[in-house]
Amino acid sequence: MAKLQGTYRHRLSFGDRAFDIANYIFMILLMIVTIYPFVNMLAVSLNDASDSVKGGIYVWPRVLTWDNYDYVFKQATILHSTFISVARTVIGTLISTFCSAMVAYTISRPEFVLRKFVTLAFVLTMYFNGGLIPNFLLMRELDLLGSFWVYIVPGIVGVFNVIVIRSFIEALPEGILESARIDGAGEFTTFLRIVLPLSTPVLATTSLFTAVYHWNSWFDVFLYNSSFIDLSTLQYELMKMLQNSNASISSSGGSMDGSGGSSANFVTPTSIRATMTIVASLPIVMVYPFLQRYFVKGMTLGGVKG
């Protein structure tokens, strides 16, 4: 193998080598452009807020401090809201992925005579919806206001996820499903024991999409549960924290410390925004490496058939 690779490199023309070098340079630059904003946010969040106002913070904090994180995590509701966000993300992702997969399997079956109509009805919801007020009235009629399940029920079936999973299932060998039916398996047993295990890559992909949505969502908290502190999520609390810091700083004419008064070690909207970005994105960044191989495979195979 090494000999063949050496022969291949030897046969490369000057144009091929120039293209490879240009491609490597482009990919390195793209990687730097992609990673730099996150690294810069991390540096700003770890830098003293009064020093950050001067600018010039790029990839490394100039005055290292944990004051920004201390300010964020000293908020009374932050731990409970983190628990709500984690619970919402885990429960919502599991339920939505399973239900979306069931719907996708149903509309992927040729024997389901209404599958084209149902697919069209689902796709239309991606372009048109009732609007903010009808959605609010619907949640009120379903008695979901002030409930944890208002975060879960509206997203039980994700249309985009259904389309992706359906395309993946349609690409599976039909003979495997037929052999299961010959052995006496019903549709649900076939789905549960055959289709789901074979669909691990696309399920991991759609689960990541769903988890990111649930983790980052805050507007539905504002809309449905803003009066219920015990149902507040991390993103909503961070949003309120940023608004309060802006209001406090504007009223005081300067920056504020964690207790609301002026201090040498103060926080600013910029430092709080950077800290919030790191706190909110770190869990997803930690989970993604474990799903990366499934994510790439699921996105590739999920588009084989339309």
Automatic annotation (TrEMBL):
The keyword Transcription regulation does not apply. PROSITE patterns: ABC_TM1. SUPFAM superfamilies: MetI-like. It is found in: Cell membrane. Its main location: membrane. The chain crosses the membrane at residues 21-39, 83-105, 117-136, 148-169, 190-215, 272-291. PANTHER family: ABC TRANSPORTER PERMEASE PROTEIN MG189-RELATED-RELATED, POLYGALACTURONAN_RHAMNOGALACTURONAN TRANSPORT SYSTEM PERMEASE PROTEIN YTCP. This is Carbohydrate ABC transporter permease. It comes from Cohnella boryungensis.
